[in-house]
């Protein structure tokens, strides 16, 4: 079933969904099941699986010099989507990114997803690799998420890259896109960012999932700005638990979001990460309760690393 159908059929009830990462290359899938099994009691409507590009790495050669190699550390998104649908009878949402992939590779991934019965995709641009300062599209790839969306739309209309394919099967993907309550870090201002977000919705995105935020007022203001800009699709809040002190600097640096002073001062008083986890869990619960009371369509949890914290929060809702 499509994400948008879950939302429409819920009739205003707030749903729950989770987001996971594929394991590092070479690791088995069992740790992922151990992570997800305890979360299934909450009957998530769907589970998102992130998509990852290759990164450059330097490998030491026997003569002591280094070779630069491209390594995709977290492959497996398509397979994990199919495996979790099979194991849990829950719908999977495959993330797709522009960065690091040609249109042909993306088409192949979409064909696999379609054959496996995965009908939901979250279409994203992706970021620059860690050692590069700005995002550059792959040769023969897309520069913006909206271009990748257009490729999915085309396949939904039976139009593949090889234009002379006769009677090609139409795929049936429901498309979600990302939105940023605190603005995408590259956008010059919120209005410009919202104009590009509206273009994605006008091009067929059926819902938006937000970047994580720790201050609900930012989400509420963002939804209002979306509505004022004529963006009327559901806006799903993305929520992440804080459970280590290190995250206090890593999260703002990596995701370009603020941690409210009230939360950061409580976290700074903690002596151990176990104490941080308690404070982080309380904050997440407070955020979740307020968002649920406001009638958000879905509470979408980035469960990475701490399924127990997410489980404790969802259980209390
Ligand atoms: P876009 O919509 O393409 O926007 C990128 C920037 O370009 C913005 O500043 C926007 O304002 C601007 N822009 C957009 N369209 C145009 C245009 N036509 N002309 C000029 N400027 C334009 N990354 C991964 O690698 N894998 C994942 O699985 C993943 N999952 C994510 C899930 C969520 C919910 C979120 C919020 C982010 C996720 N990301 C993931 C990170 C995401 O790839 C980055 O935030 C990336 O920098 C932007 O992606 P986007 O789809 O918002 O890009």
From TrEMBL:
Cofactors named for this entry: FAD
InterPro entries to which the protein is assigned, alphabetical: FAD-linked_oxidoreductase-like, Mehydrof_redctse-like, MTHF_reductase_bac
Catalytic reactions on record: (6S)-5-methyl-5,6,7,8-tetrahydrofolate + NAD(+) = (6R)-5,10-methylene-5,6,7,8-tetrahydrofolate + NADH + H(+)
Name by which UniProt lists this protein: Methylenetetrahydrofolate reductase
UniProt record similarity statement: Belongs to the methylenetetrahydrofolate reductase family.
Keywords: Amino-acid biosynthesis, FAD, Flavoprotein, Methionine biosynthesis, NAD, Oxidoreductase
Any Gene Ontology biological process: tetrahydrofolate interconversion
Gene: metF
Top EC class for this record: oxidoreductase
Native species: Flavisolibacter ginsenosidimutans
Protein origin, superkingdom: Bacteria
EC number, UniProt record: 1.5.1.54
Cellular component per GO, a single term: cytosol
Recorded metabolic or biological pathway in which this protein acts: Amino-acid biosynthesis; L-methionine biosynthesis via de novo pathway; One-carbon metabolism; tetrahydrofolate interconversion
SUPFAM superfamilies documented for this protein: FAD-linked oxidoreductase (SSF51730)
GO molecular function terms attached to this record: FAD binding; methylenetetrahydrofolate reductase (NADH) activity
């Amino acid at each position: 079933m499509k994400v948008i159908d879950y939302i429409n059929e819920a009739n205003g009830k707030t749903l729950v969904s989770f987001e996971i990462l594929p394991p590092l290359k070479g690791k088995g899938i069992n740790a992922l099941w151990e992570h997800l099994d305890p979360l299934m009691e909450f009957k998530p409507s769907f589970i998102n699986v992130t998509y990852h590009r290759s990164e450059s790495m330097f490998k030491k050669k026997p003569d002591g010099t280094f070779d630069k190699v491209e390594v995709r550390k977290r492959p497996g998104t398509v397979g994990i989507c199919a495996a979790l649908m099979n194991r849990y009878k829950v719908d999977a949402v495959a993330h797709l990114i522009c960065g690091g992939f040609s249109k042909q590779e993306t088409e192949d991934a979409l064909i696999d997803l379609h054959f496996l019965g995965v009908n939901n995709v979250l279409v994203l641009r992706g970021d620059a690799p860690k050692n590069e300062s700005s995002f550059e599209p792959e040769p023969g790839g897309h520069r913006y998420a909206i271009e990748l969306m257009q490729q999915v739309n085309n396949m939904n209309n039976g139009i593949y890259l090889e234009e002379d394919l006769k009677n090609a099967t139409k795929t049936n993907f429901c498309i979600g896109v990302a939105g940023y309550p605190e603005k995408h870090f590259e956008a010059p201002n919120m209005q410009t960012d919202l104009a590009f977000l509206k273009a994605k919705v006008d091009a067929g995105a059926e819902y938006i999932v937000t970047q994580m935020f720790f201050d609900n007022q930012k989400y509420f203001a963002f939804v209002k700005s979306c509505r004022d800009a004529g963006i009327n699709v559901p806006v799903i809040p993305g929520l992440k638990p804080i459970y280590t002190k290190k995250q206090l600097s890593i999260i703002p640096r990596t995701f370009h979001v603020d941690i409210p002073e009230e939360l950061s001062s409580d976290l700074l008083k903690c002596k151990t990460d176990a104490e941080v986890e308690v404070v982080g869990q309380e904050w997440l619960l407070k955020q979740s309760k307020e968002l649920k009371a406001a009638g958000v369509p879905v509470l979408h949890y980035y469960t990475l690393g701490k399924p127990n914290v997410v489980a404790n929060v969802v259980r209390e809702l």
